[in-house]
Amino acid sequence: MLELCMLASGSSGNAVYVATEKTKILIDAGLSGKRLAAALAAIGSDAAALDALLLSHDHLDHTSGAGVLARRYRLPVYATQPTWHAAEKQLGHIPSGRCHVFTAGGKISFPDLEVETFPVPHDAAGPVGFIFRHGGRAAALVTDLGYVTPYILDCLQNLDGIIIEANHDEEMLLNGSYPWLLKKRISGKTGHLSNVMAAECLKKIISPRTKQVVLAHLSAENNLPSLALDTICSRLEDAGITPGKQLTVRVAARHEPSCRLCFT
């Protein structure tokens, strides 16, 4: 069984639990150690049972609790070299034996789980997305990227499940209260995917094998769960893909565990 569960999603903090029969890992730790432990307990897991922590990039909403969690539970931590360098002060001291470096585009192997990584265009240090493979099943986690490159599209083919960013509605962002430079950053090529961009990506990667899609990292100010869902589902229907019949599409909750995905 390959299991994924969103523990939190959005600029206020991100963490994703990934588990198989023999392996339990956390992707990102953008909450306090206490909140992460509570979120894991809420889904019937235990922070003390984690085998590793993987970081997608150095931004605080992905790393703020990583150092505390790693020290408290003696977790090995995996990140790209640029992420290690950029997040060094935030993470604090982690014994060198538990610091692991991977290359974007490389793989990390656990006893019954293979994690593939791929670079994403984001204004961070060495950011990556992930594909998790176990027993013939595969699911992807791709958030915090300004656009979807052809290489990313190639990586995201033939998946059972997809967690993808749907950060903002373009009109809400344009007409909202953010300063212009921040609007340009979010909508730029190293910013975040809009609802429309997420939909266009999904149209190119959803296959008959794909059964579950989760929309993640929604902006609290520039998006609405209902708007993201309606925009993406309507565009998928226009492309002949029927949410609710061929596959489920859900929106990850911001502050609590949600959207558990299980593939057997």
What does this protein look like?
By secondary structure, the chain is an alpha/beta fold. The chain has a single domain (2-259), classed as Metallo-beta-lactamase, Chain A (4-Layer Sandwich), CATH 3.60.15.10. The chain is 30% helix and 26% strand. It has nine helices and 14 strands. It has helices at 33-42, 60-63, 66-73, 81-91, 150-155, 170-175, 180-187, 195-205, 225-238; strands at residues 2-8, 15-19, 24-27, 52-54, 77-79, 99-101, 107-110, 113-119, 128-134, 137-142, 161-165, 212-216, 248-251, 258-263. Strands 6-5-4-3-2-1-14 form a seven-stranded mixed beta sheet. Strand 7 and strand 8 (113-119) form a beta hairpin. The longest helix has 14 residues, at 225-238. It is globular and about 50 Å long. The mean pLDDT is 97.
